[in-house]
Each structure stands twice: as C-alpha cells, then as structure tokens.
Amino acid sequence: MSKTADQKKSLDFYKILGVPKGAGDGQIKSAYRKLAIQYHPDKTAGDAELEERFKEISAAYAVLSDPQKRRQYDMLGDAAVDIEAVDMEQMTFGTTLVAALFSKLGAPIPTAIPQRTLDLAASFEARQQGEKITWNSTTEGKISTHGVKFYFGEVTEEEAKRGVRIYVHSSISSKFKLLSFDAQGKLLSQEESMQEVLGRSGTFACIYMCAFKSLHVDPPTSRFKLVHDEEEAPPVFRRLETLTASRYSPLRPGEVLFAVQGDNFFREVKYTIHFNVCDLEAKEEILSAEEKLSQKQRELHQLEQEYWEAKSKYEKILARVEEETTTVEQSLLLREALYAKMAGDVQRERAVEQAIARAEEERAKEKAKKEAKR
C-alpha cells in the first residue's frame, strides 16, 4: 500500500514504535526489536501492507535512535527527517533569507562544510594560508560569511601530558564551526557555535583535548518550540542522553590542525580564539565528577522507565475515574427520570431526558477533541 505525500507527513514515529515521546534508548531499541521480528519481510509472505509497515518501523528507529536526528524531529516533526546539510555557497539570496529567519527562531538549519575547505585541509595550502599556533595565547580573527581560517601547530610530550583547550568566542554572536583535522588533513570532528551563557555574552565553540579519557555531552536542546512539547518528558531525562567518551581524548603528541569555518548568513564572522595548555590539578576532580554523571545517566534511565510506567497507570486510573463519574451521573439522572415518571411529572421527566442528551453530547465533543490531538 503506497503512501501519499500527505499521509507520509502525518506519520508519528513514537506511535509507530509504540513508545512515549520521552522514551529512552533502551525502550526504543526494545520496541524496535519486537516489531522488526513481528513485521520482518521473511514472515509477512509478500504482504505489501505489512512490508510498508516494516519500512515505517525501520524509518522510525533510524530517526529516534540517532540523538541529532531525534532532536530535529522533535523540533520540526517528520518534515525534518529528509533535511540535508545546506551548502551555504550554493544558496540564493531568497533561500538564505528564509534560512536566516528560521535560524533566528532557533530552528536547527544544518549546514555543510564547503568542499574547498576540506580540499585545503588535505593539501599543504592550509599550512601556507594558516596561522601557527602559539600555546597559551589569544588572537583575533575575521572571515567572510562562509570563509575559513586555519590554525596549525605541534603538541609536545609535555603539552600532551597536560592537555590543551581551543576556545573560540564571538562577542557579536557570529555563527561558525570549529573544525579539527588529523595530521593528513582528514576531518576528525566539528563543533557548532552555540550561545554562551557562562560569564560571557555572544557565541562560542570549544574543544578540550585531555591527557586522560574524558567525557563529552551536548548542550541543552534549542529554545525552538518542540513539536511534541505537550507530551514531552521532564527535560532531565534527555540532559545526559549524549554523555559519551570524548573523541578528542586522550591527547597524543604531534601535529594538530584546526579551522574556524564561517557559518553566518549575511554578516562577516568576527571572533577571538584562545589556545590554552591545561593545568592537571583538577584532573581527579574532573574524573570523579564525570564518574558521578555516568552513574546518574544510568539512574535516570531507570527513573525514566519508572516515570512512564507510573504515568501510564495514572492515565488509566484517570480514565476510569472519568468513566465512573459518567456512570454515576447518568444513573442519578435516570433515577430522577424514573421518579418523575412514577409521579406523572411529564415536564420533569422530559427535562431530565434533555439533561442526559446534553451530557452525552458534551462527552462526544470532548472525545472528538482528544482524538484530534492524537
């Protein structure tokens, strides 16, 4: 059974997997496995409708099991599923203006790293055009909207033992990416600029390359209104969802290459970049804090399961209370009608019947409203 474009837009990935909006990774994976076994093509004997169902299940899992795709889906709905990174250099003035407006609202507009940046990094030109890193120094930078500035240097044995930090800050809230490359110029990772809320105004991106195995966690979700806000779980359940081992640690001696890539829509990008060698005095405290966060991540996963189980029980009890309320009120009205009939009070009997009809009409309207919200 084929789906039209309108039908495709109405898909709810959470409902497809049968999980609540705030479901954790474990719930999503467990639900997917059960459904995938049930609807696998090997068991559906060529049934086109069931095969389509299997595709929907696979698509839902592909999105909800990926933190970045899931955040985009929660913000923009299934319209975000097919969003690909935008090539800023190929955008017209009109499309740039629209993207800028959405970005200002907080909607995630993924942008691609220009191919010329990747080509420069892979060639010797990045070092020729770039600026040599001096550790424990700060320098100002200015690039065009989609321009790039490279920074290269060496990490000694001593610096590798202590770790380094690369911190880029824009006081005028420019949008940019902080890129990291290996010694051959291959892209290792990218950090998107975000709003700074700790001590400075503007935007920033930061990379810690520690001598020890450290952890990484994504910043809180964008302020852009979530599509599923009305059923969203308490935010704390998502806060440690991306807590994972840092891809930058442990740091090794050798050549390093970074770049600041412009990501503005119209204005040039202005920033300050800090190259710091770290102090290991806080190492043990950091390791202790991150171990506690890892433990808290496990505890939150368990708490989230308990939360949804309790919420489900509460909703069932609430539905039963509503049902019992309806039954009691109907019984009382029916009793009044019978007493009126026994006394020969036709006017009161009709009034009670009308009250019963109005109550049923109101319940039908409420039911329709609830169905419309689903």
Describe the structure in your own words:
Residues 12-77 form the J domain. It holds the Pfam family DnaJ. This is J domain-containing protein. Keywords: Coiled coil. It is a single chain. The chain is built from 13 helices and twelve strands. Helices cover 48% and strands 18% of the residues. Strands 1-3-11-5-6 form a five-stranded mixed beta sheet. Strands 2-12-4-8-7 form a five-stranded antiparallel beta sheet. The chain has a two-stranded antiparallel sheet with strand order 9-10. The protein has helices at residues 5-9, 13-17, 25-39, 41-44, 48-64, 67-76, 93-105, 115-122, 125-129, 157-162, 236-239, 283-343, 346-373; strands spanning 131-132, 137-143, 148-155, 164-170, 176-181, 187-192, 194-195, 203-209, 215-216, 244-245, 254-262, 269-277. It is of the alpha+beta class and 374 residues long. It is elongated. Residues 1-9, 91-103 and 222-230 have low confidence and may be disordered. The chain folds into three domains: 5-83, Helix Hairpins, CATH 1.10.287; 90-290, Jelly Rolls, CATH 2.60.120.380; 304-373.
